[in-house]
Design a protein that fits this description.
The complex is a heterotrimer of chains A (about 425), B (about 375) and C (about 350). Chain A is mainly α. Chain A has 19 helices and two strands. The radius of gyration of chain A is 32 Å and the shape is flat. The N terminus of chain A is likely disordered. Chain B is an alpha+beta fold and about 375 residues long. The N terminus of chain B is likely disordered. Chain C contains 16 helices and ten strands. In chain C, helix 3 links the parallel strand 1 and strand 2. Chain C has two domains: about 200 residues, 3-Layer(aba) Sandwich (D-Maltodextrin-Binding Protein, domain 2), CATH 3.40.190; about 160 residues, D-Maltodextrin-Binding Protein, domain 2 (3-Layer(aba) Sandwich). Classes of the chains: A mainly alpha (about 425), B alpha+beta (about 375), C alpha/beta (about 350). Chains A and C meet through helix 5, helix 6, helix 10 and helix 18 of A and helix 4, helix 5, strand 6, helix 11 and helix 16 of C. Chain C: It comes from Paracoccus tibetensis. Chain C: Pfam families: SBP_bac_8. Chain C: Keywords: Signal.
Chain lengths: ~425, ~375, ~350
């Protein structure tokens, strides 16, 4: 009781004995309902205000991405154009050898597809899982334009022996269902063998798992580097007098105002073997003319260029958090007996964590998805998974595999986000 | 009262100067000795140099010139964390990412104290400010007054002999502030610590301090116990800064020992005590506290000079009545009367004669 | 009746203009697009009044596929690579083009016989032939200069880094050529596992000396900076650097990889009639010859060759710079879209795995 007397601010909560009676407003309606009604109109108006943005995001963002992701597990290129043989696959067990009905269905479907000019789409779909089969379909399609007579098996085998390949039939069985996990399997260097078992692909073909690993490792290194470089700068920005910090801020933001290509190209000029940095090192005699360093067109180049490009994304959230940290915290720590290092470590640094978390998350997520910079300066060892996604989007046009790779990347980022939420709390995220 | 003998002073400033820009001095030749166990307040308007002095003592600013000593030891070169001075900040500076217990434990941890000892000390310090049950709360979950107590406990938990307080009550509401003033004073007496307290609130300074150093323009204007400061201000600044005050400009007409006759610019002659005016014919500003002004002849000493005053308004303030008078050409002269039964009720427009004891009117140097 | 006919013929341009006809052409941007604007679009608009909107894309096949899949086709004519033209045609996305509707050569040779082999596909008509060639910086070597694809892999005699594009299509063939495989047998060899192994084994010999490039502008820059002494490069780009910028580069035509760019029309093109008009106009003998004034890509019609004259600078004879010149064709590999449609994905994966392994 003495406490309460001493502290007028101590909350004194008195609960009336007995449960709270249902309160009513003046006209007798239950209070809760009256409150809901009075707020309904405000809520509706608020909803109308955000509606355009909601529609915009839905149309330009959610729907296209949803469609793209759908391709990663849904591809009707085979099933829609080869209905009869797809039906046969649906009726029979895996491992069933193709019987006469199957061959007849295949011949009928191929003939129809050749007529409808869809046989190439079918071939493309099968080629995703079994390389080298697209031309089997297109050439057979051309041969079938005149029609086909029974016996179908023999006649098809006569057009191309490959039709007898059990692996081909296994792959067609897989493709006969439009919903498939095969693109995800391919995205982690797995495939199905003739019996339908999931196996690793040939060692010489394994590239995606390695690239995923490299992407996350390099992103981590880049995030760490932006932290090491960005933290002191952000601290300077937050503590310098306004006029000087504004100037510094312009320097920090300068990369934002120059095009990505210009920035990347200037790194080439600086870092290449005949570039400015190497020239300088040779001129000062630090390295010999024959020992020019390879700093670009490899991982080093990717790391340097991406660290530079992503640095502002680390500095800005850090800066905005540091600016709000009152200098008296550090002073208090010092006055309580902490050395300047201890004060930094125990008092200042923990308070920058929301900014650091935001910056690290931002940099990491951006780094994971970068592809222009690694494409230009990464050489052979600095390529990331997004370069493969871009290639499948624009060059091989295997969008299903691109979507599967992108979905895995997205999933990994979401997992990261979730982990961050569990560890730090998303509400602790400060972006500025 | 304590002497200004620097030799055995607990804290001593000797000819301390401070400049931030190399052009102007924020602190000009400061000399100050604070005794062990004393509660000394640095009082002054913002920019007067009081906070700078506190920061130099804490070690967050370095003196441009001069020496600061703590317990006889020069501390100019000692970093803040080795000075062993407790400090309470205006915004409390409780570490937001630590609980109350961790905040209090912090100074003990960095001193390498073992965990059981730390826990005992923390508990003791929290009990001292009646905050024992808040040990696992975060600062953000506490009210301003509660945070203030935690800050106090944290500054005391490692048993410093000297505690600095930088406007610690500035963010609290009036009622709570008064309550905390009492509590801090109580702790000071109980623990026997030396406190250097910075504030711009004169009421706070008068209530709590053993001595007050009034700062203005980088100098100590007067260093004295509260009563002396209030009743015998040493110059016009102190007189006007501390408490409410009436200023009447005039010229010294005659000296009678310490007593002086002053001819006011607005007409009339009054009695006053000469303070820092020594010559006949010098200009002066006479300072009189409103509550020492009398209008009933029986309350004035015999032979007191009186001057004419016209009542401009009377404000009822509960415990007192506050009359604004037109006196000697100024209509901003204030007189306070106790609200007693039978007190004469003055009416606006009424003409009265006012006077005072000569020692209550202090002839000081003229104001600009 | 007669006057109406004359009037309508005379004013056909005007009539088109009055109905505000237009055609949207999606091409590759850059100097290539400029050459098309100069050689095709301007005379086309002058003659027919149909306005041509030029849209640049990194690879026009990508927006084409996207537009067809979305069911909202906005482009009328797309300039795509052969492999994409065939693939999209097989998928039924493109309009079939009857060669009979294309104008004959000035001497009366029908289009079918006038175009170079492979230039006429079911749904596509080639406009230019371009080559990926080896080029070197003459200041990097003393005495003997490199002459063959084999020299590209000989870093002892011809020191310096090599530039190669980071894809299997334009690297594996070069390795095989350098290893002694005749141009005509490249796809037979590459079609076998041993052949692919052989190509990678050859690439292994210079792996540590390669600077990989991605965009067409990069190899020219690498060569100019001295970052590489030899690189493969698109012949139009290196011609530009040699003639317009006077760079000390030379071209080795041995082991040239020939490619064609083709015009295609999507099935649901919004301005179908204007698109057909444009296609016929842009692929006639004179237009194809005119284009060579602006860029060093070879016309896809044989009848154009004799009309190819001077470069726009007025002094450079274009004929020797054409990828279709006799010297250039001597040991040239023609792109095989069928092969790459089957193998591209597999090769890309293997190529990247090879790159990543040290």
């Amino acid at each position: 009781m003495a406490n309460v007397a001493l502290d007028p601010h101590a909350a004194v909560v008195s609960t009336a004995s007995g449960g709270p009676a249902a309160l009513t407003s003046a006209d007798g309606t239950p209070l809760a309902r009256a409150l809901a009604r009075s707020q309904r109109r405000a809520r509706r108006r608020a909803f109308l205000l955000v509606l355009p943005l909601l529609a915009f995001i839905l149309i330009t963002f959610v729907v296209p991405i949803g469609q793209m992701l759908q391709r990663s597990f849904y591809n009707a290129g085979f099933s829609a154009n080869m209905p009869q043989v797809s039906a046969w696959f649906a009726e029979t067990e895996r491992g069933t050898d193709p019987d006469d009905a199957a061959w007849a269905a295949l011949a009928a479907d191929l003939t129809a597809a050749a007529e409808a000019r869809t046989v190439a789409m079918v071939g493309t779909r099968i080629n995703y899982d079994l390389s080298g089969t697209r031309s089997l379909f297109t050439s057979t399609g051309r041969a079938l334009r005149g029609g086909i007579e029974p016996p179908y098996r023999e006649n098809l085998l006569e057009i191309d022996q490959k039709w007898g390949d059990p692996q081909l039939w296994s792959v067609m069985r897989e493709a006969s269902r439009p919903v498939t996990a095969n693109f995800y399997l391919a995205a982690v260097d797995r495939a199905r063998d003739a019996e339908g078992n999931i196996v690793q692909v040939d060692e010489r073909q394994r590239v995606y798992t390695m690239l995923f690993g490299r992407t996350f490792w390099l992103s981590l290194v880049i995030t760490a580097l932006t932290f090491v470089l960005g933290f002191p700068i952000a601290h300077l920005l937050a503590t310098l007098p306004l006029r000087k910090s504004n100037l510094l801020m312009i320097l920090v933001l300068l990369p934002f105002w120059t095009s990505l290509l210009v920035r990347t190209t200037s790194w080439m000029v600086l870092l290449q073997q005949q570039g400015v940095v190497n020239d300088l090192l040779v001129w000062t005699g630090i390295i010999g003319a024959s020992g020019r360093l390879q700093m670009i067109y490899n991982q080093t180049g990717t790391i340097i260029a991406m660290t530079h490009i992503l640095l502002p994304f680390m500095i800005l959230p850090l800066y905005s958090v540091m600016r709000t940290i009152n200098p008296s915290y550090v002073r208090a720590a010092r006055s309580l007996g902490a050395s300047s290092w201890t004060a930094f470590r125990r008092v200042y640094f923990p308070q920058t964590l929301p900014g650091l978390g935001a910056g690290a998350l931002l940099v990491f997520i951006l780094a994971v998805g970068y592809y222009i910079t690694p494409a230009l300066v990464g050489g052979s060892s600095g390529q990331l998974i997004s370069n493969m996604i871009a290639m499948h989007m624009t060059s091989t046009l295997n969008w299903s595999l691109a979507a599967a790779l992108a979905a895995l990347l997205l999933a990994a980022v979401l997992v990261l986000y979730w982990v961050y939420d569990r560890m730090v709390g998303i509400d602790n995220l400060k972006l500025g | 009262m304590l002497d200004d003998r620097h030799g055995d002073a607990f804290v001593a400033f000797e000819h301390v100067q401070k400049s931030y820009d190399g052009q102007t001095l924020v602190v000009k030749d400061l000399n100050l000795a604070i005794g062990k166990g004393e509660f000394l307040t640095m009082l002054g308007p913002s920019g007067s140099g009081k906070t700078t002095c506190l920061m130099m003592l804490a070690g967050f600013e370095t003196a441009t010139h001069g020496e600061i000593r703590l317990a006889g030891r020069p501390i100019n070169q000692v970093p803040p964390h080795k000075r062993g001075i407790g400090m309470v900040f205006q915004n409390y500076a409780l570490f937001p990412h630590m609980t109350v217990g961790e905040n209090l434990s912090f100074p003990l941890e960095v001193r390498g104290m073992a965990k059981p000892d730390r826990e005992a000390r923390v508990k003791r310090a929290l009990d001292m400010v009646q905050m024992g049950r808040f040990i696992s709360r975060r600062p953000a979950q506490l009210s301003g007054g509660q945070q203030q107590r935690i800050a106090l406990a944290r500054a005391l938990v490692f048993d410093p002999e000297l505690v600095l307080m930088d406007e610690p009550l500035g963010a609290l509401d009036k009622q709570l502030r008064e309550h905390m003033q009492f509590e801090i004073k109580h702790l000071h007496e109980e623990l026997g610590i030396t406190v250097v307290y910075v504030t711009h609130d004169q009421g706070e300074a008068l209530t709590m301090s053993d001595r007050i150093a009034v700062f203005n323009d980088g100098r100590i204007q007067q260093l004295a116990p509260p009563a002396e400061l209030y009743e015998r201000p040493g110059n016009s600044f102190v007189a006007s800064f501390i408490g409410e005050n009436n200023s009447l400009p005039g010229v010294i007409e005659e000296f009678q020992g310490d007593k002086a006759l002053v001819r006011l610019d607005g007409g009339g002659v009054i009695d006053a005590t000469a303070v820092n005016i020594r010559e006949k014919g010098q200009r002066t500003t006479v300072s009189i506290r409103p509550e020492r002004v009398e209008f009933k002849p029986e309350m004035m000493p015999p032979g007191a000079h009186t001057i004419e005053a016209k009542v401009a308004e009377v404000v009822y303030m509960g415990d007192i009545l506050r009359a604004r008078l037109a006196v000697a050409g100024s209509d901003n002269f204030v007189m306070k009367m106790r609200n007693t039964i039978g007190q004469t009720r003055l009416e606006p427009g009424q003409v009265i004669r006012i006077g005072w004891h000569p020692q209550d009117a202090r002839a000081l140097e003229p104001t600009a | 009746m007669k006057t109406t006919l004359i009037l309508s013929t005379a004013l056909s341009g005007l009539a088109f203009a009055a109905t505000a006809q237009e055609v949207n052409v999606v091409s590759w941007g850059g100097a290539y697009e400029t050459s098309q604007v100069e050689a095709y679009n301007k005379p086309f608009t002058a003659e027919t009044g149909i306005r041509v909107n030029m849209i640049a894309a990194d690879n026009p096949a990508t927006p084409l596929k996207a537009q067809v899949e979305a069911g909202n086709v906005t482009g009328d004519v797309f300039d795509v690579e052969v492999s994409d033209a065939i693939r999209l045609c097989d998928e039924g996305a493109l309009m079939e083009i009857d060669p009979a509707m294309l104008p004959a050569a000035p001497d009366g040779t029908p289009a079918v016989d006038d175009f170079v082999p492979g230039a006429l596909q079911d749904c596509a008509v080639a406009n230019i032939v371009w080559g990926t060639v080896i080029s070197y910086n003459t200041t990097k070597f003393e005495g003997e200069m490199p002459q063959t694809a084999a020299d590209f892999f000989d870093t002892e005699t011809f020191p310096g880094k090599r530039g190669l594009p980071r894809n299997p299509k334009r690297t594996l063939y070069l390795a095989l050529i350098a290893d002694g495989v005749p141009a005509a047998e490249i796809y037979d060899v590459l079609g076998t596992d041993e052949g692919v192994d052989r190509a990678f084994a050859k690439l292994d010999t210079i792996k540590n000396d390669v600077v990989w490039w991605e965009a067409g502008a990069q190899p020219v820059q690498l060569l100019a900076d001295g970052e590489v002494s030899m690189t493969t490069v698109y012949n139009g780009r290196v011609f530009d650097a040699m003639v317009a910028e006077n760079q000390p580069f030379e071209i080795i035509w041995d082991g040239q990889y020939m490619d064609m760019d083709m015009f295609v029309i999507p099935k649901d093109a919004p301005n179908l009639d204007a698109a057909v008009e444009y296609l016929k106009f842009a692929t006639d003998t004179q237009r194809l010859a005119d284009q060579a004034r602006y860029i060093a890509y070879g016309p896809a019609r044989q009848s154009s060759a004799s009309l190819v004259g001077l470069y726009q600078d007025g002094v450079t004879e274009m004929a020797p710079h054409m990828p279709t010149s006799p010297e250039a064709l001597e040991n040239a590999v023609m792109d095989d879209p069928e092969f790459w449609a089957d193998r591209d994905a597999e090769m890309v994966e293997r190529f990247n795995a090879w790159l990543a392994s040290s």
